[in-house]
Amino acid sequence: MSLRYALLGLLSDGPASGYDLLRTFKLSLANVWPATQSQMYTELTKLAGAELIAVTDEGPRGRKEYTITAAGLEDLRTWLTTTTPKEVHRDETLLRIFFLGVIPPGLARTYLTDIAERAEREHANLRELEQGIDWNERDLSRYGHLALEYGARATALKAEWARWALENLPPEQD
Amino acid sequence: MSLRYALLGLLSDGPASGYDLLRTFKLSLANVWPATQSQMYTELTKLAGAELIAVTDEGPRGRKEYTITAAGLEDLRTWLTTTTPKEVHRDETLLRIFFLGVIPPGLARTYLTDIAERAEREHANLRELEQGIDWNERDLSRYGHLALEYGARATALKAEWARWALENLPPEQD
DNA sequence: TCGTTCATGTAAGACGTTACATGATTGT
DNA sequence: ACAATCATGTAACGTCTTACATGAACGA
User: Fold this and answer.
1) Could you state, in chain order, the average pLDDT of each consecutive group of 10 residues for chain B (174 residues)?
2) DSSP H or E stretch at residue A16
3) Stated in angstroms, how far is A87 CA from C28 C1'?
4) Rounded to 5 degrees, what are φ and ψ at B56?
5) Given its phi and psi angles, is residue B142 left (phi above 0), alpha (psi -120 to 50 degrees) or beta?
6) A85 chain-B contacts, CB cut-off 8 A
């Protein structure tokens, strides 16, 4: 259901083709709601079927430009204002933490170090992405900037936590 | 795939029935890897079929006690030491942030305030859970404590970020 | 002309959610 | 006797991933 609104949201900023949306996604929404090419094209077809978006132009190579309809915009607004987001925390990295006692202590330390390093890299990537983007007047990018800031803080926190965990690993037992 | 290892992980700490695991889950793994009752019983049946766990006792009311097998423990260790966790960030709350420009500014502010409040409540719940748990010698709880600390920090961060975002909302446009 | 990018689509299978269904045992 | 809890299972449906498939247009 969320992908549907992710696409409506992107289209609320202006018309675009599936291919356009695919690229925009990678730079923005993919960080908070991953989706594959396959999924996106399927969903766009469904949205067009429900008349929440419409094909408003056709270009070379079978390119179809979609525009959000009034019904689509209304649906998006309704979703935003009348429903509450589900808070689902699914984190495989954290799941494994519970089971570190099952492997040799050295490997457990390596695991935590890797987490810290990956998080630091991710943090750097986000800050770099931030530099590279034209934070213009468009709503999507202005609000997207807030989301990016969250990502930057969250990755920094994960790295810090992993380093802290290294210092606070349960003492080895006999 | 992760649920499979989540269950193997819990069973590595000692034998338990599906019902036992269900309760343990709620207090621990559910926070990093949610799963439903339905999913768990199905997965346990599959694990037993693959002989990674075995029924070692049967009690009243059809209760089946499962014990991890040597093959199961090996599988768990292999997973922990030879595969890298997928970092997937799927957060509906953040997804909506991108589209706040589509709704009236007052509602956008309410949305951010709600995020802060929910995160603060979640934070309080986790700290309370922390008080309530017997942090004994068992590996699962010792390492689980590290995961809980992450959750506590992450919820605090989310609340802080939401309050910061309220102060840094894009200026209204004409 | 030939590789890259643009551009869209389908199909199979894994995973996750919701709902339904059933019944035994325990404590009051 | 009755409610709550213990205890397990199935079915339908929706979502997500992986892989395959196809071909037009552009630039060197």
Assistant:
1) 97 96 95 97 96 94 96 97 95 98 96 97 94 86 95 98 95 70
2) strand A16-17
3) 39
4) -110, -5
5) alpha
6) 92-93, 95-96
